[in-house]
Structure formats: C-alpha cells, structure tokens
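Fold Annotation — chain and its backbone
Next Lines — sequence and tokenised fold

***
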Amino acid sequence: MSRRRRVDPGSAAARVVDAMDAVDRRDFLPSAQQRFARADLPLRIGHGATCSQPSTVEVMLELLDARPGDRVLDVGSGSGWTTALLARLVAPGGAVVGVEIEPDLVEMGQANLLGADVAARIEQAVPGHVGRPEDAPYDRILVSAEARHVPRALVEQLADGGRLVVPVRGELVVLDRAGTEATTRRYGTFQFVPLRAAGDD
C-alpha cells in the first residue's frame, strides 16, 4: 500500500505511518469484513457507512497534520478507526472526540476504542447540527463524509491557527483559520458517503 513509501523521519507522513502501523484496522471492522482489512478499499460497516480505504485515510491525516497536545474533532467517526489513529497522533497531552449520527455506529465505535486502549471518545451527533460546539475550539477537525460546501459551523469551531480537512463535492478541502480569516486549498479526487445532517452550512 502507499503508506509503505519512504518518508522523512519526524514528518507528518512518518507520524501517520507510525499511527497506522500501531492501530490495526481489522479491530475496527465487522467480523465479515476483517479478512479484507489490509485491502486498500473502503469496507462496509453497516447503516450505509464505510471504513475508508487506508490510502485515503493516510492522505487526510497527513493533510490534517495533528500534533501532540492538539484538541481534535472527528466528524463521522464510524467504526472509530480514524478516531483511534488521531488519538495516537495527538498523544501525549492531546484530546480527541468523535461524533457519529447513527446510534448503532456510536456503540460500535465506543466498544472499538475501549479495545484499542486509546485516550479518545465518541459521542452521539445531534441531528440537524454539524460538529460538537460544546467542546470547541479545536486545533484540528477531520470530516470523513462529503459535504456540499465547507460547513460554516465547523469553521466556527476551529481555534485560531486551526485546520479543517473536509471532502467537498469530490475534492479534499484543507482550510486554515487565522483569526477571522480563512484560506483554503484543494487536493485530488475522492469519494465519500454524504455528510448526514439537517443542514451542513
């Protein structure tokens, strides 16, 4: 897989590779999908959701560049795999909260995190709302579902100097906030399940 490429020690890419080596995707999949854990494919986890393919997760995490001590929000946490990876990236001293709209997936993700023994949690998303403003601001926000446009609510939950990575209409958007200003960059073409909320603006 692409995450086996040579990377510079200490770089964001190297830290992501280390996290992905430490957190086994198999432990976050339904039993019927576990034999495909090493395949670079999105895998169904039920309720219309998928566990994203490893190469896509790798790119997103590199772009996010979460660092030790960061406070991170994981939107669309699904099986909890990305939440656990983020917990590895922000240790020591960081904090990660995942939000998921499907109650059965919240339960699945919470159980998976307990098994992974990482400092992170998953909460039930509030229908009609994006993110988790009660724990804001966040240094990093990762969204693993496709939005129609960059959700304003998530930009408002970013700390000054914070970064948001979100799929928007087939492209990964990286947004950096500096005070009241925000700059965006776009990367590649990717496919995700839709971001589910009453409004993603």
